[in-house]
What we know:
Layout: E1 3-6, E2 8-11, E3 14-22, H1 39-63, H2 70-84, H3 86-99, H4 103-119, H5 124-127, H6 130-145, H7 155-158, E4 161-165, H8 170-177, E5 183-186, H9 194-202, E6 206-208, H10 213-216, E7 222-226, E8 231-234, H11 238-259, E9 275-280, H12 286-292, E10 297-301, H13 315-328, E11 333-337, H14 365-370, H15 372-385, E12 390-395, H16 401-420, E13 431-435, H17 438-442, H18 445-448, E14 453-456, H19 458-466, H20 484-499, E15 504-506, H21 514-523, E16 527-530, H22 535-543, H23 551-558, H24 563-575
Parallel strand pairs: 3-4, 4-5, 5-6, 9-10, 9-16, 10-11, 11-12, 12-13, 13-14, 14-15
Antiparallel strand pairs: 1-8, 2-6, 3-7, 7-8
Helix pairs in contact: 1-2, 1-3, 1-6, 2-6, 3-4, 4-6, 13-15, 15-16, 21-22, 21-24, 23-24
Amino acid sequence: MSFALHGSAVAHGIAIGRAHLFSQTTLEVAHYVVLPEHRTAEIQRFEQALHQVTQELEGLERQIPAGAPAEMAAFLQLHRLILKDEMLARTPRQSIQTQGCNAEWALKQQLDSLIDRFEQMEDPYLRQRRDDIWQVGERLLKALTGQPAPHLPAHHEAADSILVAHDLSPADMVLFKEHPFQSFITDMGGTTSHTAILARSLGIPSVMALHHAWQMIREGELLIVDGMAGVVIVNPDNQILAEYRLRQEQWSLERQKLKRLRTTRATTLDGTPIELLANIEMPGDVDAVKKSGARGIGLYRTEFLFMNRPSLPGEEEQFHAYRQVAEALRGLPVTIRTLDIGADKPVEPSGIVSTLNPALGLRAIRYCLAEPQIFLTQIRAILRASHFGQVQMLLPMLSSRSELLQTLVLVEQAKAELTQQAIPFNLHLPIGGMIEVPAAALALPLFLDKLDFLSIGTNDLIQYTLAIDRTDDAVAHLFDPLHPAVLMLVAHTLRTAQKAGKPIAVCGEMAGNPTMTRLLLGFGLREFSMHPAHLPEVKQVILKTSLTDLQSPVKRILSTHEPDKLEEILTRLNQQVC
């Protein structure tokens, strides 16, 4: 029987192959009482499992093949840090000692507690860090229960296989690097999960958040994975199979053509230069930036340095991470966004209590201003890194002028401290603001005199404008970049910034979506920042576009409030040969 499953497209491409089911189902954990005289031995059994998993991860790190993405080692190191975290390692010991729980049950209870905390987070990136906690915990549970490693197909079999799993960890991905699967599909995960990041860096078509694929697909069934549409077709008929084989061939040829554009400057047909920049999460992403032909980094998300660790990164650690990126870009711009995190983050040294709705509570710039020492440490690190490249600082989620003024006071304080300590930095470090809240977009003049540049974060702007959590399956279908209110806010923000002579970029998902490229160009956008993998497609659209031909259809789009009519105009706009 043929059927289709729909999930989140995390890595583009088309794959056709036979299903190989990777057994990663949730373990059944026994619960029994450990007598007082046996509790020391039970704690030792737990500690032995910790040691075993640590050695496994260290061994996997040594097995990483030459040429593998730098993210592989980074994620394995992160999982080793999670193992050392007191939240995971200490509490189960206490439960064994005080409550007489067996090690498996004590660990499972703590895992459930941690997962619940992450589930309550509003920010999609932070919420998906629960996957890392669970992946490490599951590995520990397997060590405690003595479960054998899952079966992997032979090398030649993997070349024609599509891996189907409930979930995959970065450690699993290292093993699969030696087995050239056509594609990965999982029930869990999402676009910002570490497995998704690795899939994109490996160039493997992937679909995640399928929910029940592992249960519904049988071993050896023929699958089509459409990494653009986020669709998996099980047992396709001959007509669909032939159509997708043609699409696969066309996709492959198109990718080869796009590679030739790497050194071509992005310029419209009427000679207007467009800046294409890349978004990164860690220093290891720089290689992908260079391969994409990006003209710099438009968004360096610094949250990764702060996540899933027992303590916050100090100034030196942050400085070295930022400096590494700045030096690697060799004079190209590097825009470092300050910590964008919610009040319910996993490391809470300040003891600030989480709000019921973190998206509307203490997050991003609000959190940083509530924790001035954490913020000041990061500002100092960014300033120091500015001595080694063209570094800019970007402030997330501004909504009031007072937030900006308070931040500028801290920047001046950091500059004064560094000057007194004779530490070099760029005295005129450019400071920009992210427009992610409708209030900031509508009252942009409040910020323009104090900011050097702007960047529109379309993901949050859409979420806050429409009151839609795109990671909530119940309402995700309502998350609409083409909603008239969203388009008017984006167009208004671009116009206002341009009139004030302020550089402005778009760094959300809209920037990397080639179907939105001409629309954004028509709005006046001249600087895009996106995942490196999306850059060639966007560049190709730009090279085939004449700005003068966009004026009339873009005006019609802004004056249209009927969704069907709007999509029809946009489709014609993308189909026309400029």
